[in-house]
Fold this protein.
Amino acid sequence: MQVSPYSLLGASTLAALEQRCNAMLDAWAGAWGVERSACALDCARAWDTTALRPGQWQRHYAQAEQAVWIGWPDQLARALQARMFAPDQRHAPDAPGGASLAAQSAAEACAALADALAAAAAPGVRAPADSGTAAPPARLFRSASGAVMVALRIAEQSMLCVLNHACLDLPAPQKLALPVRTDLRGVLGYMPVTLSVSLGQVEVDVSQLLTLAVGDVIRLDSHVDQPVTVTGPDGQALFGAHLGSADGTIVVEAVRHASH
């Protein structure tokens, strides 16, 4: 007897899936030179969407009970080609060989996008050798099937990805368990940290800068008896200090900063 899942899918599940897919889309767009603003992505319950027509499903991934179907119309590759290789009206049309190369690159970008989308939406699934182009079963589009549709739009064309309910039953990432009595001072105590000392600032105009010479005195905005600021690696002020010298080396004596 075949058992069908009954899952309405919460908004948090869809939001988490959309976040993973958007991160993938950022990386793919950067790798293939596609403007990110031209791409949009949306995740929805499969029964609230409209599927592609038969014959437009081009990828099928499966692993155990998890299954993913991805499809797109032929127009998507042409729209992607226009984004990747915008025509330059100042020159004559490209030679047929150049056009073929652009079309081939756009097709490869589509295939790479499909693989990346499947990996982001359902980590762990694999495409079988005889993946075929079978459409997802109709039961996935019935109410409360637990299936999800990811729609990725480039220009006016869309790539659709359907995930069955098993793809969303992945275990939550395990949290790193630290010993309760971890001595962070002992662990981090020998890590070097660079501190910077700010003596003050001064503002000069360009004409003054160009006339500076050896021996000129530059007056800063701080006073001799005023503590200087010691900052950490991130530039945040940690404490104040007084300048001094010891054994021929400039040193600072830590004091509480006046602003603290």
About this structure: The longest strand covers residues 237-246. Residues 194-255 form a domain with the Surface presentation of antigens (SPOA) fold (CATH 2.30.330.10). Residues 89-98, 171-182 have pLDDT under 50 and may be disordered. The chain has two domains: 11-168, 194-255.
